[in-house]
Write a structure and sequence with these properties.
single chain, 71 residues, mainly alpha
Length: 71
C-alpha cells in the first residue's frame, strides 16, 4: 500500500466507529477521514485496531479475550 493513500490515527479507532457503545463517535470517524479521502481520491478505507485497545475492552469486555473474531 506504499504511496497509495493516507494514514491517520484516531482514539477508539475502528471500534469507536462501529460499536453501539460509541454511537456518538461514529460520525466523528468519517468526518475526520473526509479530507484524506477527498485529497487522495481514496475509494476504500482499511481500519486496524490492536487486541489490547482500551476501546475494545470497554466495548467487548472479557469476550475480546475469548473470541478472536471480535478484534
Amino acid at each position: 500500500m506504499r504511496d497509495r493513500g493516507s494514514q491517520f490515527v484516531i482514539a477508539r479507532g475502528p471500534i469507536g466507529a462501529v460499536h453501539l457503545r460509541f454511537a456518538p463517535w461514529h460520525q466523528a470517524f468519517w468526518d475526520i477521514s473526509t479530507s484524506p479521502r477527498l485529497l487522495h481520491d481514496i475509494q476504500s478505507v482499511v481500519a486496524l485496531s490492536r487486541r489490547d485497545c482500551g476501546a475494545a475492552k470497554l466495548a467487548l469486555g472479557e469476550r475480546r479475550e475469548r473470541d478472536r473474531q471480535l478484534c
